[in-house]
Automatic annotation (TrEMBL), chains A, B:
Name of the molecule in the record: Flavin oxidoreductase
Keyword presence, Membrane: no
Coiled-coil ranges from the UniProt annotation: none
Keyword annotations: Flavoprotein, FMN
Family in the record: Belongs to the flavoredoxin family.
Superkingdom per UniProt: Bacteria
The Flavin reductase like domain, residue ranges: 20-155
GO molecular function, one term: FMN binding
Cited Gene3D superfamilies: Electron Transport, Fmn-binding Protein, Chain A
Pfam families in UniProt: Flavin_Reduct
InterPro entries: Flavin_Rdtase-like_dom, Split_barrel_FMN-bd
Source species of the chain: Flavobacterium tructae
Obligatory cofactor(s): FMN
Length: 201, 201
C-alpha cells in the first residue's frame, strides 16, 4: 500500500466518528446527483446552519458545482438498509450519469423544491446555500447552508426537541470506509459547577 | 421548556452523530484547561488538518483564548469510562479553576509540549494552531490546526492505517447531551463505477 494512502486512512479516522449523509442536487441541465459526504458539520442552531467541506477533486466536484449553480441541496440521513448503496455513490461516475440510477436509490421531489431528496432516508433536510468560504491552507471549499425544512418521523423527536437518531436507524462512519450503528449510553443532565450530573430518562 | 432550547436540541441533533473529544490547553498564567467539544472536524489528510468551531459565549472562551495565546492544544478521545467526567467539563467554571481538578481527570505533560493531554484518553493528539477564520454569518470562530503527533495504542491501527476506534473504546455523541458506543457494520471496498462493493474485514 502506498504510504500516502495509509496516511489518508489514518488521518481520516483519527478524528473520531463522523456524521455521514447523502447530498442531493440538480444541475442546470437537469441532471440529478446524489453523493455521500462525511464532512457535514453543525455550526449553529439559530440560524440553523451546517457546513460541508469539499475537496478540490472529483467526484465531489459535481455536487459542489450544482450547489453553486442552483443554491439548493438536500441532506439525507443514511440508515442501515442503504449504507452500501450510499457508499457506492462515491464512485467516479460521469457528470451525465445520475447516481440515483447507478446505485438504485429513489429521487424524491416534493413541495416544489428544486433538489432531489433520497426517498429511502427517514430524515431529510432542505438546505439553502448561504456562503462559500475558500480554505486556502489546503485548497478546500467550505459551503455554509441554512436548514430551511426538516422531514422526520414524529416518533423520532423527543418532547425537548432531541432527535433520537437510533430510532431513525441513522448510522455513523469512521475513516474512509467504515460504517457503524450505535447503542446509546445515556443522555446526561446540563452540567453546572458543584452539581453532579445525572442520566436523563 | 423554552422554544429556543427546544430548537437548540433539535438542530444540534438533526445533523447526525458527531465526534466528541476533550481539548486541553494552558494559559500564559499557567492555568490548565480541559473542555469537551463536539465541533471538531477533519478537513484534510495532507497536511493533517482539523478544525474546531467555537461559539461566541463561555465556557468555550477560555479554550479559545488559550489556543490563540499559546498556539498549541491537545485533542483527546473520550471513552466509555470518562464520558461523564468529560460532559462535566462543559459546566461554566471560573477561568482560574482547572477543569482537570474539578472533574478529576489527569493532566499529562510529555515530550516538552506546552499543552496538557488527558491521561485517561487512549488516543491523544498534539495540535498546532495554523489559522483562525471568523464566520461572520453566526459570529462563530473556526480554528484550523495541524496534527503534529499522534499517541495511539499500536493494536488500534490496522495495517492499512485505519484506526479501529471501537478497540480504543472511543465513543460518539448526538445533540447536546447524548453519548453512544458503536458496533461496526462493515468496512467497504473502494467504490468504482460498474464494480460491486464488497465488505473488507
Amino acid at each position: 500500500m502506498l504510504e500516502s494512502r495509509k496516511i489518508a486512512h489514518l488521518i481520516n479516522s483519527i478524528g473520531g466518528f463522523k456524521s455521514v449523509s447523502l447530498i442531493g442536487t440538480k444541475s442546470h441541465s437537469r441532471n440529478t446527483n446524489v453523493s455521500i459526504f462525511s464532512s457535514v458539520f453543525h455550526i449553529g442552531a439559530n440560524p440553523a446552519l451546517i457546513d460541508v467541506i469539499f475537496r478540490p477533486s472529483p467526484p465531489q466536484r459535481d455536487t459542489l458545482s450544482n450547489i453553486l449553480e442552483s443554491g439548493f441541496y438536500t441532506l439525507n440521513h443514511i440508515n442501515e438498509s442503504i449504507y452500501k448503496k450510499a457508499h457506492q455513490t462515491s464512485a467516479r461516475y460521469d457528470a451525465a450519469v445520475s447516481e440515483f440510477d447507478a446505485v438504485s436509490l429513489t429521487p424524491e421531489f416534493k413541495n416544489g423544491f428544486q433538489a432531489p431528496f433520497v426517498q429511502e432516508s427517514l430524515i431529510q433536510m432542505r438546505i439553502e446555500l448561504k456562503e462559500k468560504i475558500d480554505i486556502s491552507i489546503n485548497n478546500t471549499t467550505m459551503i455554509i447552508g441554512e436548514i430551511v425544512q426538516i422531514y422526520i418521523p414524529e416518533d423520532c423527536v423527543s418532547p425537548d426537541g432531541f432527535v433520537d437518531l437510533e430510532k431513525a436507524n441513522t448510522i455513523t462512519c469512521s475513516g474512509l470506509d467504515s460504517y457503524h450503528k450505535t447503542i446509546q449510553l445515556a443522555r446526561l443532565s446540563y452540567a453546572k459547577p458543584d452539581k453532579e450530573i445525572t442520566s436523563l430518562l
